[in-house]
Design the sequence.
């Protein structure tokens, strides 16, 4: 009963949020955000009707999911940071030109070569899976499907929810570094993020839930140093909203921009809802993390997810499926199944 009530509460909040908001929560945000006017100029993917199905490879490559799972298990044993790396790789792929594996294309001027992509990891995992699938089912399983399936299995390994993945994506033939300029940097206002997600067919609930991926993983200290040492452009000033003990820890941890710091300072290796509890403690690492607990459109969702881990798990699975369904209608019918994920077919 408690879970059902939580689901209805979240659905109600999403409906209310979708109607817009005229408050001033964004003005309370301390960072001078980067220029993100490009958000409003993005293609609208929200009305695109996908043709993805759960049975897509049942006949053409019935071993596809088994191979993906086995390979991800092998890589995870060697690298316990695999899950957050692959989640980030899928996110970067899907919110730029849709889920078409354009982030995997490796040449000068591609998305992969952009500054925003320099710290992305997981490419070798996808290449390894693709090589095995080409042996078993040549010219059949797309790189974009491999990436989405691998992310699901990586999430499962770290204790996250298992969910069914619909398949049938095609690999794009276009990848441009300049397209990554629209990606959020962690310093935007909540309204900017809401608009960005809505342009992808995602809603406020998806924004808050998918932000929960920061329950695992880390980022470079360069992403947070402005909050620590130059808040609002004032040299030596720190963001006063950060918990004092956590601020002291971050200052000691992030003396150098090249160092790394965990998103979740309490349980960084465990997939759970501690991320939302951290926001309530004013221990959100990025400005955009902490703002989720300050803006009235999102703070109620933070509270619900902080107190209801089962709801977070269920909704995270649902939002990941939605993320994996984003496709660019302008590329419909123009995709392919790459033989090598790094290059378009000759």
Sequence:
């Amino acid at each position: 009963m408690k879970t059902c009530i939580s689901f209805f509460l979240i659905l109600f909040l999403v409906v209310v949020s979708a109607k817009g908001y005229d408050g001033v929560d964004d003005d309370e945000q301390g960072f001078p955000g980067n220029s993100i006017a490009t958000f409003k100029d993005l293609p609208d993917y929200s009305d695109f009707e996908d043709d993805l199905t759960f049975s897509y490879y049942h006949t053409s490559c019935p071993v596809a999911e088994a191979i993906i799972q086995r390979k991800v298990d092998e890589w995870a044993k060697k690298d316990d940071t695999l899950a957050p790396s692959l989640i980030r790789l899928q996110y970067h792929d899907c919110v730029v030109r849709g889920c078409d594996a354009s982030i995997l294309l490796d040449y000068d001027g591609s998305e992969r070569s952009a500054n925003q992509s320099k710290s992305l990891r997981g490419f070798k995992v996808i290449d390894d899976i693709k090589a095995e699938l080409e042996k078993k089912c040549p010219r059949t399983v797309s790189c974009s499907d491999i990436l989405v399936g691998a992310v699901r299995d990586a999430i499962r390994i770290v204790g996250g929810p298992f969910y069914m993945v619909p398949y049938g994506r095609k690999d794009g033939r276009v990848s441009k570094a300049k397209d990554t300029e629209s990606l959020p940097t962690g310093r935007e206002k909540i309204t900017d993020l809401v608009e960005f997600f809505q342009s992808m067919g995602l809603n406020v609930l998806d924004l808050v839930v998918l932000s929960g991926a920061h329950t695992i993983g880390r980022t470079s200290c360069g992403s947070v140093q402005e909050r620590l040492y130059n808040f609002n452009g004032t040299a030596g000033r720190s963001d006063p909203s950060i918990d004092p003990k956590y601020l002291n820890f971050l200052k000691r941890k992030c003396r150098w921009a090249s160092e790394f710091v965990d998103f979740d300072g309490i349980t960084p290796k465990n997939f759970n809802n501690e991320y939302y509890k951290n926001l309530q403690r004013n221990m959100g690492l990025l400005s955009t993390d902490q703002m989720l607990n300050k803006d009235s459109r999102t703070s109620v969702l933070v509270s619900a997810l902080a107190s209801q881990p089962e709801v977070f798990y269920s909704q995270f699975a649902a939002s990941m499926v939605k993320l994996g369904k984003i496709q660019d209608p302008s590329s419909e019918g123009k995709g392919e199944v790459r033989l090598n994920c790094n290059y378009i077919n000759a």
The first strand starts at residue 218 and ends at 220. The first helix runs from residue 2 to 18. Residues 197 and 207 are 7 Å apart (CA to CA). The radius of gyration is 20 Å.
